[in-house]
């Protein structure tokens, strides 16, 4: 299992390009199941989750042709195996996003519960509830969701769906399913994330009739078929925020290209509060860090509030800031696992339930730490870059799920980082 070795204490400086968004790419890849015509995607990030999704689509009968450096052409005409087996999806929760498109176009699906989780533990139940409202017959047996359309027309029916909680993948799954349903579907309490809007833009270019994406009420008028299209994946706002935090924590100055601050208002505001100087260009962001950061408190909540996917990175930043910060996590349980690892580097963190109090220290010290999830991995990288001495991060396969060529990009910014096979 690969490790990452970081010799910290150097400010990041220079320019690096941001990749396409993983959280937009995965549902948009699944949109390729909705049409027999070719769907051409560009700005696709080179990530393990993306590679897994492409393999999953290929074993379902979708033609997958790589196109240039960051492009792919999906051809759904050969779709013949509507099954997502556990062996392929156990490491990727986004695999549930094939459920809605498969049921809508193929009339049935058999999809493993990702990671073997139980219904209700995470909002997979909202996906099922919505599809049932649209007329799908669903059984959950032996870790699989079996879904089938039973109407005479063989199509789902439009419905009014109000989710019990805001769920991004639930909104995306139901929106894709509704594109080929008969009549109108209204999704209330819908997720408002930019990735949902990017998926809607792709679907509209394929002939879908969608309005309200980016608000909490999305309306979809079903059509009989979707056609092919070309779509460019949006920039990864979480990767953008991660590199901004890394530059801030190391006292650096960087310019990030092929990205936009329009998806990151609350993150930029927090970095300004921390004392950073930020310049927003049309497709780039420049950050210059102060001599020492000020601690910033935050509370995670659904978009457009502070993203849970940036909480760990800001905890690392606060570890070396002046003062104390209070961090409240309201989205996911057990999302402070990185705190214990940060303490191994000398961080001063106290945890009480879903609240962490972080008191900045003058300097962190390098040590061996272990990544527990994707964003926790990013927080350890940031802390390692800011720490004195060498930090070894174990189990970095998490990083490869969400950050394209991270050691190469950091090296371009002057970091001393290497991968240990």
Uncertain residue segments: 116-121
Q: What is the strand arrangement across the widest sheet?
A: 22-23-1-24
CATH architecture of the largest domain: Alpha-beta prism
Question: How many separate domains make up the residues?
Answer: 2
Q: What is the CATH T-level topology of the largest domain?
A: UDP-n-acetylglucosamine1-carboxyvinyl-transferase, Chain
| Fourth-tier CATH superfamily name of the largest domain | Enolpyruvate transferase domain
Describe this structure in words.
Keywords: Cell cycle, Cell division, Cell shape, Cell wall biogenesis/degradation, Cytoplasm, Peptidoglycan synthesis, Pyruvate, Transferase. Helix 8 runs parallel beside helix 10. It contains 14 helices and 24 strands. With 421 residues, the chain is an alpha/beta fold. The chain folds into two domains: 203 residues, Enolpyruvate transferase domain (UDP-n-acetylglucosamine1-carboxyvinyl-transferase, Chain, Alpha-beta prism), CATH 3.65.10; 211 residues, Alpha-beta prism (UDP-n-acetylglucosamine1-carboxyvinyl-transferase, Chain), CATH 3.65.10. Helix content is 31%, strand content 26%. About 1% of the residues have low confidence.
């Amino acid at each position: 299992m690969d490790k990452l070795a970081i010799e910290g204490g150097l400010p990041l400086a220079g320019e690096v390009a941001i990749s396409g968004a993983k959280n937009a790419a995965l549902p948009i890849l699944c949109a390729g199941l909705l049409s027999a015509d070719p769907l051409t995607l560009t700005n696709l990030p080179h990530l393990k989750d993306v590679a897994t999704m492409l393999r999953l689509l290929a074993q379902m009968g979708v033609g997958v042709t790589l196109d240039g450096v960051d492009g792919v052409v999906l051809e759904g005409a050969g779709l013949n195996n509507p099954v997502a087996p556990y062996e392929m999806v156990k490491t990727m929760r986004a695999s549930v996003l094939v459920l809605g498109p498969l049921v809508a176009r193929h009339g049935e699906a058999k999809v493993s519960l990702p990671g073997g989780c139980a219904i209700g533990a995470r909002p997979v139940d909202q996906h099922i509830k919505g599809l049932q409202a649209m007329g799908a017959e669903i059984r959950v047996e032996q870790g699989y969701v079996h879904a089938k359309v039973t109407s005479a027309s063989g199509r789902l029916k439009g419905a009014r769906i109000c989710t019990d909680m805001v769920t991004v993948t639930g909104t995306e799954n139901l929106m894709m399913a509704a594109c080929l349903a008969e009549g109108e579907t209204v999704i209330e309490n819908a997720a408002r994330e930019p990735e949902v809007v990017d998926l809607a833009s792709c679907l509209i270019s394929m002939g879908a009739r969608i309005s309200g994406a980016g608000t909490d009420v999305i309306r979809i008028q079903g059509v009989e078929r979707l056609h092919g299209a070309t779509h460019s994946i949006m920039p990864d706002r979480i990767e953008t925020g991660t590199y901004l935090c890394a530059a801030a924590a190391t006292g650096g100055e960087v310019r990030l290209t092929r990205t936009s601050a329009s998806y990151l208002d609350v993150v930029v505001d927090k970095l300004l509060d921390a004392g950073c100087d930020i310049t927003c260009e049309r497709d780039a962001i420049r950050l210059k860090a102060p001599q020492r950061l000020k601690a910033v408190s935050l509370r995670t909540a659904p978009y457009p509030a502070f993203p849970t996917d940036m909480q760990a990175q800001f905890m690392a930043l606060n570890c070396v800031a002046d003062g104390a910060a209070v961090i409240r996590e309201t989205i996911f349980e057990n999302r402070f696992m990185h705190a214990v690892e940060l303490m191994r580097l000398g961080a001063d963190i106290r945890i009480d339930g879903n609240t962490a109090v972080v008191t900045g220290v003058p300097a962190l010290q390098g040590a061996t730490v272990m990544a527990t999830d994707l964003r926790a991995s990013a927080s350890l990288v940031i802390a390692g870059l800011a720490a004195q001495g060498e930090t070894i991060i174990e189990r970095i396969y998490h990083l490869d799920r969400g950050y394209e060529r991270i050691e190469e990009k950091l090296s371009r910014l002057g970091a001393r980082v290497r991968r240990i096979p």
